[in-house]
Amino acid sequence: MKPAPLHEQIRSGIEARILSGAWPPGHPVPSEAELMAEHQCARMTVNKALTALAAAGLVERRRRAGTFVARPRSQAMVLEITDLAREVAARGEDYRWDLVRRSTERSDALGPMAPLLRIEGVHHAAGHPLAFESRLVNLAEVPAIADADLAAEAPGTWLLAHAPWTEAEHRITAEAANAALAEALACPLGSACLTIHRRTWRGAAPVTLVTQHFAPGRHELVARFGARTG
Amino acid sequence: MKPAPLHEQIRSGIEARILSGAWPPGHPVPSEAELMAEHQCARMTVNKALTALAAAGLVERRRRAGTFVARPRSQAMVLEITDLAREVAARGEDYRWDLVRRSTERSDALGPMAPLLRIEGVHHAAGHPLAFESRLVNLAEVPAIADADLAAEAPGTWLLAHAPWTEAEHRITAEAANAALAEALACPLGSACLTIHRRTWRGAAPVTLVTQHFAPGRHELVARFGARTG
DNA sequence: AGTCGGAATATGTATAGACATATTGGCGCG
DNA sequence: CGCGCCAATATGTCTATACATATTCCGACT
After folding, report:
1. Chain segment B143-175, per-residue pLDDT in tens
2. CA A61 → C1' D29, Å?
3. Do the Cβ atoms of A172 and B223 come closer than 8 Å?
């Protein structure tokens, strides 16, 4: 086992005392001078550790006053949004994408009379419908998708590989299945479907607008805060 | 307007090129030597910028090879979980908490035969039921809650003020309303209810386990990635 | 007593240099 | 031709120092 870098040791040592509750919110963290005496190192090294903790929101640093354990005010959870194909494969199940509709139109949904590609289809896992997806893609931003084989590859997977780093907003709701959705997901009319509305931008330009309806009981989102991994 | 620190300028300059799509995944980022020549600064300064980008998952750094725009496996969205009372008040609506049940028990839900407080109640917004909440609190960790007036103040509000947790896990699903839930929320049987299962810990000790069922159409979660604020 | 201003303090940013380490590409040798 | 080793390279870590900046403390002056 290779020893961790010194600034990592300092960081994780302080982090452990915060996460264990030994240092409650508001508790002072030793100053850089104290830490550098304790660890026999230069100030830049302890500064690196404390700066990382501040970036992670675990501590608050105030000039002249010192460093203190942060009070968790707005709890910002980390919600991992993964590609469905990858997620299904990670569970060891077969994944399949069925393209249902592919058409072009112009509308104001993603900018004034923007040329749009409309895609509808169903994600399957282990042979059963997992999610119905309805998507608009801004052809002005991503013209290359017009040539993509969207029957073979889900549009989300294609976009992730070709234009992934965007800004995104997700709205998560529960919606009752209407007739068309019930048929697509092979579930009873009115079933409770977890629904994700996603909008993405590249810079200021809208890229895509997606709605995914998940089959009842077949999907859950997990959001975490803190060090807990399992 | 005070100029941003140099390492921030370097970081945001690179970040902009990645988010705009100008540098696609796998694209090489200039080496530290090139960046320090370009910005006329020391290597530590560009290192700070690149290290921050690597910590945020935007770039991948490989010794000898260089720095490259990362291929994202998943995007970590930021999901703000707020106190319901505060959220309702922020929308300018009246908030009310109705305590339905308050009892003690022992079970293994939060540790081996832990003494537990069970609380059930309904959050109201603008006079209508917003969410049914069922909660277990670990009395071994938070004994003071036994003396709290949980008819006047929702347990989530009380806990936030008295025993902030350090780690949390949320599971978000859609569930159909059963008879009891339909009555509590004054909604039809089988309605699609957005449901949040939350577990929190302080250090290694479980603190509370909450299930919140939201009335159909009355709540949505919002998660964001990137700089977009609205 | 109240307040204004300077000194003390802790963090914020940056430099120049040094050595460590992982990785890659090429060179030489069998 | 294939294999292994070495050197070049880019990042990783750390030091010692310097100056900037925000904040608080405290004393002096009104």
Report:
1. 999 999 999 999 988 887 777 677 889 999 999
2. 34
3. yes
* Euclidean distance between CA atoms A109 and A198, whole angstroms: 13
Residue ranges, CATH 3.40.1410.10, chain A = 78-224
| Torsion angle, alpha carbons of B162, B102, B213, B89, to 10 | -50
Give contacts of B 23-42 with A, CB under 8 A.
24-25
List where CATH 1.10.10.10 sits in chain A. 6-69
| Residue linked to tokens 């949904």 | A109
**Does an H or E element contain B107, and which?**
strand B95-107
Contact B101, B118 (CB under 8 A): yes
The top-level CATH class assigned to B78-224 is alpha beta
B223 CA from C14 C1′ (Å): 36
Q: Are B71 and B26 in contact (CB under 8 A)?
A: yes
Name chain B contacts of A203, Cβ cutoff 8 Å.
19-21
CATH 1.20.140.10 fits A6-69, yes or no: no
Give the residue from B20, B45, B73, B166 with the most A CB atoms within 10 Å of its CB, the best one to mutate: B166
pLDDT tens readout for residues A141-190: 999 999 999 999 999 999 988 888 888 899 999 999 999 999 999 999 99
* Alpha-carbon dihedral B100, B104, B105, B108, rounded to 10 degrees: 90
Give chain A positions within 8 Å (CB) of B190. 190, 192
pLDDT digits (tens, 9 = 90+) for B216-228: 999 999 998 876 5
How many Cα atoms occupy the beta-carbon half-sphere of A186 within 13 Å? 8
Nucleotides of C under 7 A from a protein CB: 8-18, 21-24
ipTM above 0.90, yes or no: no
